Write the structure tokens for this entry.
Amino acid sequence: MISKERVLTAANLAVPDRVPMDFHANPWVYERLHRDLGTSSHRDILLRLRSDIVDLRGVVDPVYRGPVPLSREVGDGVRQNHWGWRQKTVQTATGPEDCFVEFVLAGASSIEDLEQHTWPSPDWFDFSDFAERLKPWQDFAVMASGASVFQHPTFLRGFENLLADMAMQPEMAHWILDRFTNFYLEFFDRMLTAADGRVDILRTADDLGMQHGLLFSPEMFRTFIKPRIKKLVDMTHNHGVKFLFHSCGAICPLIEDLIEIGVDILDPLQAAAEGMSPQVLKNEYGSRICLHGGICTQHLLPKATPEEVRAEVQRRIDILGAGGGYILAPCHVLQTDVPTENILAMSDAASEYGRYAHEQPL
């Protein structure tokens, strides 16, 4: 099987030739991997790590033609993008990381205040040559990503403010959530149309859980988040594309809801979070939704030896990969605390151990 076939077989809850793999890291990890592995392109890294999925962000993007800069410096190391959200690179104990700062809509007290913001339009993006630029990636499973109905609004409004809106000013919450949802519905509808069948997965990310529970009640999820995700799912399926939903944390109480609205692939299976046992997830949901992730980035990958990583990858494949329907990946975008040798141990172990019995070893 080529990578595209392998991933789509797993997404359809069937058994491919081997467990497919996916890989994401922050820019500083990619820089280190290029140095350590002697690679010179993103394709080279994906091939070395045997990743079967290419995320299009930063690899094949639509051409931006908006009236405001796609990204600009606003002082003191702070960058502002076309949405207006602001980020700054900070130094952590293990290396650099981007964080969100200066939430520009934090002071809004009415819908009229929100309306005064400069909101981007899908018209700012040119997809005219998009399909042509996807051709070199057709051996991979191609994943478009970047949609969000809850998390991205927090980057403008502020996390605590948006939660307060949901509890006390629901009309404010609905307005800003709709603004993002409607943008992403139109943006990705245009992207998938322009792709002409060359995109296989759409990824939406909205973290809904913490280490020990949900960020808000299931009732709030069903009021504010679930109907909007469903709109994205329906649009995606209208294009014949699979839908991957990402949420970190202890989200077990919401998985039935996600299956109900048609989510095809669930990521990242944060095993260290409460109630997210791989065996429970496989037993309860593995016959109804493809499972993606499962390799711990909190404890295992940063702190274990390569031998321990290999053993844990094998255990995850034994559980989550049984009978197909599993894509192996880290539980989070890899940060600089994960050493290169553990990244290679994860990849090599999955390649060696993840082959299903109906195929001969390489």
In short: Residues 189 and 238 are 9 Å apart (CA to CA).
